[in-house]
Amino acid sequence: MEVVATSFLAILVIVVLAVQGPLRGFWIFLAATALGAAAAFNMPALGGASILVADLGALTIFMMVALHSGGLALIVGTMRPGQPGFWLILLVVFGLFATLFFPALFRGQTEVFSLSRDLDGGGIVRSKLRPSTGNLTHLFRLILGGAIFFATATVFRVRPDARIALIAVAITTGFNAALGWLDVLTYAIGLPEALDILRSANYSMLDAATMGGIKRMVGAFPEASTYGYFSLGLFGFWLRFWFSQPKSLLGRVMLGLATVAVLRSTSSAAYVAFVAYVVTVTLGLALVGARQQVNRHSVSIALSFVMAAWLSVIVVVVSYELVTPIRDFFDTTLFDKLEGDSGVERMSWNAQAFLNFAETYGLGAGLGSVRGSSWLMATLASIGVIGTALYLMFIGSVLFNREARHGGGERASVIRALRSGALALLISSLLTGATPDLGLIFFAFLGLATGLARGAQLERGDEPNQFWPSTAISRNNPPPSARL
Prior knowledge:
Blueprint: E1 2-3, H1 7-24, H2 26-32, E2 39-43, E3 49-52, H3 53-67, H4 71-78, H5 84-105, E4 111-116, E5 123-128, H6 133-158, H7 162-188, E6 210-211, E7 214-215, H8 224-244, H9 249-264, H10 268-290, H11 296-322, H12 324-339, H13 341-359, H14 375-399, H15 409-432, H16 440-460
Antiparallel strand pairs: 1-2, 2-3, 4-5, 6-7
């Protein structure tokens, strides 16, 4: 195990969580997810794999919940059949089985694109399928995502306090924006290495790249695309929150910060996902509004947003034709990439991933064996039809859960916003995701949405509480064994 400069940040996260608990201290874990290249420690024995600061934060929250009096029973309750956790635990079990056995079972029977750390800085190589350390690291990421989902869904089911979740996302958004601008400013004043202390993970760092003469905003991530992906999830949260709470000053400020972060990343993947997400959400709101399931004000905002986006497209098209610097910028970020070597290479990853899926008879080659250029193709090639179906069932059971769709108020707005943020991340991954891993923030968002929705249902008394039938669960009067 190799201790690095950011190991002290991991200690800080653990200490704050230990002092404040997994509920009140949740903000520091979520903020740590913005440190996408900060390692708690590196592991040379596992091919240089890195355990991030946020990873230790997720493990700490899970262990605190599990070791709490009655905690394991609470977590098991999150896995009840019919609940999202049921599909997730099946996914984790199948992913464990597939990753431990399928690379050996199909060894040498198909060629895969995978990440190699044997080259300087690592690289994507094509080789025969075989077991590797990458299988263990990607399996760990799935288990870690499951751990933070179960812990978060459990804590916020017992204490469904939407304000805590809202504040945590706000802190994360502000922290991510501050890191992004600090990255740009330090580069502008000739100190490009100033944030290198936060980039201690064993990743290929592309933090000094420019696009059309503009420094790409990277923040504490290894490259602009990962920063754009993370920022898009925050944008999705705040856009939907703003639709529901248009008078909220916090919502307007945070939406502005997240929007600028996505656009300033100059990531072509983030731009395409941004457009796809906005179109999806506005059309969805218009459709739901036609069925009178949302208020007219939200629909009018959504339609106004569509009109503003349409006018922006017209301005961009005209500027592209008339202003040379703008034309050069869009050629570099979008059009040349699609036609260049990078675009062709990424399409070849998807083609090979589909071939891997076929040559493993639809079972998959195991997590960490395959690299694609779309989350769906990478997931099919890694864990096959069964694993992909379980993954989709898990996601769908949260995004289309009807438990918190009725009524208004801040909690309902936060639940919708969490689902929207997760949807933005999913859309981005469907377009450009290289692996089945959707990130800790994705699982945290789904865990928050699930816990808050389930907690609201129990508070309303829609069904008996299976753990404390004689105790009314409320924010101010949780059962003694649930004071997390």
